[in-house]
Automatic annotation (TrEMBL):
Record domain ABC transmembrane type-1: where: 61-250
Family: Belongs to the binding-protein-dependent transport system permease family.
InterPro entries: BP-dependent_transpt_permease, MetI-like, MetI-like_sf
Membrane topology: Multi-pass membrane protein
A Pfam family of this chain: BPD_transp_1
Native source organism of the sequence: Amycolatopsis ultiminotia
Keywords: Cell membrane, Membrane, Transmembrane, Transmembrane helix, Transport
UniProt name for this protein: ABC transporter permease subunit
Length: 260
């Protein structure tokens, strides 16, 4: 019960800041000296562009949360069906799909983002698709492994012998069996996606360097961590709270599912 309450609080705080922050009036234009300490009119000081740090934090959460959720949803929307098809449609299709995914897995994620940045493909849509694609092989492999687990495999084969079509078995029984590993993976993958988004924005892929996005702000102000730590630590703390809260809630949901 305590962990669940803590999880909801950790998720609610950054979610409320991300959703409600843009509604709070504030000026995010460069109106002061760069990296100024907290003072009158600037409770958290200013960032490297001379913008009020508090106004930047309040206005920059919606983009990073939205892009992160979009990339995760797209990755699982592609990866879960691929994993189920690979596990349920025979060895030859399994081999073809896994070898194709191995090709994607062979390329480092940051290298893919650097190539996209170098070719000039710089937009939020491209960023979401790129992050989703680089996460696809790991998700599909996870789902395939869970679907091929002995208990799940035996039940699926029994249903197949009873005349059930493979797609109904995969979409009905098997998908419920892989839900636990997928939820656990999504909680931990959230932090990885946030790291990739921060790296992509640092490379100039996606949002511009002047955007108030939390990930962009952290990367842009990291050299001012010792002189103006609040600009980095506040958005970083909000992102950490979001990741930890999601993991706590997913763990409690899985524990409740096992008990029931």
């Amino acid at each position: 019960m305590v962990n669940r309450v803590i999880g909801w609080v950790l998720v609610a705080v950054p979610a409320l800041v991300a959703l409600g922050g843009p509604l709070v009036p504030g000026d995010i234009s460069s109106t002061s000296l760069p990296s100024a300490p907290p003072g009158a009119g600037h409770p958290l000081g200013t960032d490297v562009l001379g913008r009020d740090a508090l106004a930047v934090v309040l206005s920059g959460g919606l983009s990073v949360v939205g892009i992160t959720l979009a990339a995760l949803l797209l990755a699982y929307a592609m990866g879960v069906p691929l994993g189920l098809v690979a596990a349920g449609r025979g060895r030859w299709l399994d081999e073809v799909l896994m070898r194709l995914l191995d090709l994607v897995l062979a390329f480092p994620s940051l290298l893919v983002l650097m190539v996209l940045a170098a070719t000039g493909h710089r937009s939020a849509v491209v960023l979401v698709c790129a992050v989703a694609v680089v996460q696809l092989p790991a998700i599909a492999r996870l789902v395939r492994a869970a679907a091929l687990a002995p208990g799940c495999r035996t039940a699926a084969e029994a249903l197949l012998l009873q005349g059930e079509p493979w797609w109904r078995i995969q979409a009905g029984y098997v998908v419920r069996s892989v839900a636990g590993p997928v939820v656990t993976d999504a909680g931990t993958r959230l932090g990885l996606v946030l790291y990739l988004l921060a790296s992509a924005n640092f490379l100039g892929l996606g949002l511009p360097s002047s955007a108030p996005d939390w990930a962009v702000v952290i990367e842009r102000n990291r050299d001012a961590l010792t002189t103006q730590p609040a600009v980095v630590l506040v958005p970083a703390a909000l992102l950490i709270a979001l990741c930890v809260g999601v993991n706590l809630l997913s763990d409690k949901a899985l524990a409740h599912r096992r008990r029931s």
